[in-house]
TrEMBL record:
Domain (Leucine-rich repeat-containing N-terminal plant-type) ranges: 30-60
Domain Disease resistance R13L4/SHOC-2-like LRR: 93-202
Pfam families tied to this protein: LRR_1 (PF00560), LRR_14 (PF23598), LRR_8 (PF13855), LRRNT_2 (PF08263)
Protein name: Uncharacterized protein
Cellular component GO terms, alphabetical: plasma membrane
Leader sequence residues: 1-27
Keywords: Cell membrane, Glycoprotein, Leucine-rich repeat, Membrane, Repeat, Signal, Transmembrane, Transmembrane helix
TM regions (residue ranges): none
InterPro entries xref list: Leu-rich_rpt, Leu-rich_rpt_typical-subtyp, LRR_dom_sf, LRR_N_plant-typ, LRR_R13L4/SHOC2-like, LRRC69/RLP
Gene3D superfamilies hit by this protein: Ribonuclease Inhibitor
The keyword Transmembrane appears for this protein: yes
Amino acid sequence: MMTVSNKIFLLLLQFFTLLYLFANTFASTEEATALLKWKSTFKKQNNSLLASWKPSSDACGGRYRVICFNGRVNRLNINNSRVIGTLHDFPFSSLPFLEYFKLSMNNFYGTIPPDIGNLTNLICLDLHANQISGTIPSQIGSLVKLQILHIFDNHLNGPIPEEIGYLRSLIKLSLGENFLNGSIPASLGNLYNLSFLYLYLNQLSGPIPSELGNLKNLNYLELSNNHLSSPIPSELGNLTNLSDLGLSNNQLSGPIPSELRNLKNLNDLLSNNQLSSPIPSSIGNLRNLYTLFLDDNNLIEHNNLSGTLPTTFSIGSALRIFNLHGNKLEGKIPRSLENCQLLEVLDLGDNLLNNTFPMWLGTLPELRVLSLRSNKLQGPIRTSGSVYMFLELQILDLSCNDFSKNLPMSLFQHLKAMRTIDKKTNASRYEFH
């Protein structure tokens, strides 16, 4: 027979089950009403993609890209849905269990409301490729569970809030392609789990914080196309997992830190700044380097990479693009580059390189672009008789040097479908199909 205590237990179980169902039904009704109210503010009410957003007591009743868990809205994903609207009337306080909020590739405009800080369970916030303007609210620092924050390709302005440094769970942070200004907050150095940091194409200024050297899990650091200045901090050499370091099109000055030799996984190194001093030979330790751009550091007088080319570049056997155009490098082209058998582009133009034209360049099997223009190369160019000379070459620029004779026609005997040959080697560019 069922005891009194067992009967009481069953009654309590039934009561709490009904209470749970009632609470979830109420919450679902409230969330459905809130979402519909937000939808009513959209400019285009006949959007066929949102046709399933109709009055109902259930927010989880098959609405387009609304996913629920235990009867509560858990994911809202209306990426690329032709929506024209704002976030001003979004029901931030009515969706406390929302974890994934994705509105990218639409036409949302206006600002990000401070109420964004109410979504404390949020794991992913993706608003990229919209027309959102204004500043990033400091309340975003309340989203301590956030792992992905994408607001790139919008019209944001103002500074990057220091409060983003509170988001210790962040793995991906992308704020690129906006109009953000001010300095990069040192607090970003607290994001120890960060793997991707994209701040490119903004108006950020000041130094690169040395605290970014704390981000030991960082794979991609993209800071290009800003107004960053001061030397490259040596602490970036601590980022041993880094595969992409984008610093191009800034006003960075001073030497290339020798500590960058520690970035053994680096595939890309981009510059175009105001760097000076010799290139450290330790750069040759970057065995996985695929592209190396240290070009155009001569925009301001006395700010140039100078000295000779290190012979250690040959260590980078994976190297495909090697661009040191527009510096004050001198001496001869080191024969050790002959070991870079995957090299496709070699641009050493607008330097002070001298000595004779190195014919061994013609034996690089993948070389397609060779520019040595505006140097001090001299003497006659002698062919070696090799049948493997410049088999893949498409662009050759040797103009503005001190060659004593015209280029020998035999140099091009193995090139196919040659478009033009101008024998005035001091003022011409050679292109081939």
